[in-house]
Automatic annotation (TrEMBL):
PROSITE patterns: GNAT. It comes from the Bacteria. SUPFAM superfamilies: Acyl-CoA N-acyltransferases (Nat). Residues 8-167 form the N-acetyltransferase domain. It comes from Altererythrobacter arenosus. This is GNAT family N-acetyltransferase. PANTHER family: GNAT FAMILY, PUTATIVE (AFU_ORTHOLOGUE AFUA_3G00765)-RELATED-RELATED.
Length: 177
């Protein structure tokens, strides 16, 4: 699956992308904000990531610039504890340029097209920039802050939880009688 936004092309990872993935994510400042990526992140991790099968209902995309195919990061939706969860990372050299928000909007369009009705997301409390991105995407804080394991940090870290009701947003919510 591919998806195009104003500046970005979201596309599936291919095995030959492992070096670009490694170059973007092998930064402790990036990995420390992720729940599932290990630190240090090495070539084997990158190869395994790009070779993972992709469930069509839970797509994972490389975020690339549409004008030059430069890798910006990765984004996708996945199952987590019975929920549909949005996750992403942006390479440090691309921080602060609006790519996370733009890619997030694109993935939420895909999620709607796939029929997902509710998406959850979260961020570690020491990464408030990610919370601002989630707010721009329309996510609402649930008020829940709880420890979540960070593979890269090797420990549980407090994370704020958010949710987005795609059904209500689309006017699909069932009205109570």
């Amino acid at each position: 699956m591919f998806h195009r936004s104003e500046r970005l092309l979201l596309r599936p990872p291919w095995p030959e992308d492992w070096k670009q993935v490694l170059g973007g994510i092998a930064d402790e400042g990036v990995v420390r904000n992720l729940a599932r990526a290990p630190w240090p992140y090495n070539p084997t991790d990158a190869r395994q990531f790009v070779e993972l099968p992709i469930d069509p209902m839970f797509p994972r995309f490389l975020i690339t610039r549409a004008d030059n195919a430069m890798l910006v990061g990765c984004i996708g939706i996945d199952r987590n504890e019975g929920e549909v969860e949005l996750g992403y990372w942006i390479g440090r050299q691309h921080w602060g340029q609006g790519y996370a928000t733009e890619a997030g909007r694109a993935v939420l369009e895909v999620a709607r097209m796939l029929g997902h009705r509710r998406i959850v997301a979260g961020h570690f409390l020491d990464n408030p920039a990610s919370g601002r991105v989630l707010g721009k995407l329309g996510f609402e804080p649930t008020g829940i802050v709880r420890p979540r394991h960070s593979c890269g940090r090797g420990e549980a870290v407090l994370a704020a939880e958010y949710e987005l009701d795609l059904a209500a947003e689309s006017g699909l919510a069932v009205q109570a009688a």
